Amino acid sequence: DTHDPTSLRTPIVAVLGHVDHGKTSLLDKIRGSAVIEGEAGAITQHIGATAVPLDVISSIAGELVDPDDFDLPGLLFIDTPGHHSFTTLRSRGGALADIAILVVDVNDGFQPQTLEALDILQRSQTPFIVAANKIDTVPGWNANEDSPINATYEAQSDRVRSRLDESLYEIIGNLSDEGFSADLYWRVQNFQRNVGVVPVSAMTGEGVPDLLAVMMGLSQRYMKEEMEIDVAGPGVGTVLEVKEEKGFGKTIDLVLYDGTLRASDTIVVGGTNEPIVTDVRALLQPRPLEEIRTESRFEKVDEVSAATGIKVAAPDLGDAIAGAPVRVIRDRDRADVVAEVEDE
Ligand code: GTP
Ligand code: MG
Questions:
Q1: Three-state SS across 186-202?
Q2: Residue 21 known to bind ligand
């Protein structure tokens, strides 16, 4: 560790898309591939988020990601539910993300929540790429587990290739109808101007190396400056969910995107009426799956640093709302911090 107070945090990647288009499966596939690569321990499951470090990304992506080309520590993925009743959470999930993956089923194409997600991304000015998922369901598909897209594409028959092309161009056309200039990702020069479309299968892992490579490249190229944070500074985050937790009462699941949050901190949380000022009682992390006992699903930790997902137990969180800002007071003036939360 250096004494430089600023360091580069992990970019936060929201995974959005219509119900059943494969958001969770895609993250499961990335976790599963890490297990196969003998990197199970390196992937950490956070509250509402999965952290994938750079060396794991590189081992999954193979030659598409050379770790020496990057100095960002990896990617933190946030899964979002596609069901329509989660609209508010999703719109907030979209706003707190640095970048996003919009998952579209190649057969099902654009659907209501795809359009809704696009609208959220546009409004929050979040750069994104499109994962055209389920390519393995193209009739006649010849699966090549975990292969980069060009190799598996070459291994398909002409007929299969043209069927896939058709579906992909339909997605590109749909994006264009919504005002986004898009193309297959390997043709995109400037990802700030054009949306890259990455064909993938969450089932077979085909295209997943490309997806990870594009996300890393995009982050490194366009997000690096925004990732420079004062890690030791007072934490800043966003509420993902407010949840009743047995033994802890109302808790908030939050994504911390700046600084540090300690179990000894006083925090300000946006509420339905006014900001809530409260003392953290416990910072709770999910235990690894194999360690979960019925009585203690969580492990208490003393502090966490951005970017991470964490559950916070504290009094008076009943009025906290999903999407609200959270700020640590620590040595700052209490009224200033309350005013900042009020303005956000
Ligand atoms: P919600 O969270 O409900 O919005 O859905 P989701 O987007 O997370 O979709 P999920 O990952 O749960 O996948 C929905 C269904 O599609 C499941 O039955 C998956 O097994 C299937 N599925 C997802 N990805 C693929 C894929 O690449 N190929 C195939 N053949 N099936 C897939
Ligand atoms: Mg899901």
A1: HHCCCCCCCEEEEECCC
A2: yes
| Other Cβ atoms within 10 Å of 228 Cβ, number | 10
Ligand 2 centroid to residue 101 C-alpha, Å:
13
Average pLDDT in the chain: 89
Asked if 8 contacts 228 with a C-beta cutoff of 8 angstroms, the reply is yes
pLDDT per position as a tens digit, 65-114? 999 999 999 999 988 876 655 566 566 666 678 999 999 999 999 999 99
Ligand 2 centre to CA of 46 (Å) is: 16
Encode 71-95: b = buried (16+ Cβ within 10 Å), e = exposed: ebbbbbbbbbbbeeebeebbbbbbb
CA distance 221 to 215: 10
Interval between CA 53 and ligand 2 midpoint (Å) = 22
Ligand 1 atom at shortest distance from the alpha carbon of 202: 27
Say which ligand is closest to the CA of 19.
1
Strand partners, 208: none
Question: Is 265 labelled a binding residue?
Answer: no
- Residues 205-218 have pLDDT tens digits of 999 999 999 999 99
Q: Which residues line ligand 1 (CB under 6 A)?
A: 17, 19-25, 81-83, 133-134, 136-137, 201-203
Question: Nearest-CA neighbor of 17 among 97, 95, 109, 88?
Answer: 109
Residue 2 amino acid letter = T
Predicted TM-score (pTM) of the model is 0.91
Nearest in space to 260 (alpha carbons), one of 284, 290, 299, 230: 230
DSSP string, 248-299: TEEEEEEEEEESEEETT-EEEE-BSSS-EEEE--EEEEEPPGGG-BTTBSEE
C-alpha 18 to ligand 1 mean position (Å): 10
As a whole number of angstroms, the distance between CA 1 and CA 112 comes to 47
